[in-house]
């Protein structure tokens, strides 16, 4: 699996648009998103295993609820799975939790991105619940992966983004606005 310090792989994937445009139907709901999209922004890319499952919509909806907070931090959210854009669209239409989803749903149908990232489940052949925070230069600054049966905490991803954007030393359980560590001050106290 790629990790902190690695370049996020180049990609070009079909996607269902976020927002109301994503519900307009085949041909109108689709777009292409690539590693060049949203250049100069932080990117949070999170994968789920399969559409039409139980844990996945809870996570997707929870990430989407924080979309405005991520945008305030000059970050974009991309959700992805190995399902096609047609399956994503059908799922949005039929699941009230994600019907009004404000973020795009990327379709890694050839498994090229999930393979390049090293996040395919060896038994199921679907993406694990992996999350990447990628800086504006395309370098992975945080990576996390859960098994297929355990959901994530998007609020923690936001907290980590806040910490990364300080470019300072952030102690355990640090939250935005909290004190960061100053090595010079720590050595003076000793």
From TrEMBL:
Entry EC number(s): 1.11.1.26
Entry's Gene Ontology BP terms: cell redox homeostasis; cellular response to stress; hydrogen peroxide catabolic process; response to oxidative stress
Catalytic reactions of this protein: a hydroperoxide + NADH + H(+) = an alcohol + NAD(+) + H2O
Keywords, ordered alphabetically: Antioxidant, Oxidoreductase, Peroxidase, Redox-active center
Transmembrane segment boundaries: none
Record flagged with keyword Cytoplasm: no
Protein name, per record: Alkyl hydroperoxide reductase C
Organism for this UniProt entry: Teichococcus oryzae
Lineage: Bacteria, Pseudomonadati, Pseudomonadota, Alphaproteobacteria, Acetobacterales
């Amino acid at each position: 699996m790629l990790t902190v310090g690695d370049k996020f792989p180049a990609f070009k994937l079909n996607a269902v648009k976020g927002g109301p445009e994503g519900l307009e139907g085949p041909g109108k709901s689709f777009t292409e998103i690539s590693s060049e999209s949203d250049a100069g922004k932080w990117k949070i890319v999170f994968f789920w295993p399969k559409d039409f499952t139980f844990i996945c919509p809870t996570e997707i909806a929870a990430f989407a609820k924080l979309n405005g907070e991520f945008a305030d931090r000059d970050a974009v959210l991309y959700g992805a799975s190995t399902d096609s854009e047609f399956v994503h669209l059908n799922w949005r239409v039929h699941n009230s939790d994600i019907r009004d989803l404000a973020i795009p749903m990327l379709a890694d149908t050839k498994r090229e991105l999930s393979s390049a990232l090293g996040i395919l489940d060896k038994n199921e052949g679907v993406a694990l619940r992996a999350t990447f925070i990628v800086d504006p230069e395309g370098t992975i600054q945080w990576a996390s992966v859960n098994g297929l049966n355990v959901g994530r905490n998007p609020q923690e991803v936001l907290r980590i983004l806040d910490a990364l954007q300080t470019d300072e030393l952030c102690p355990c359980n640090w939250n935005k606005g909290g004190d960061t560590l100053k090595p010079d001050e720590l050595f003076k106290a000793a």
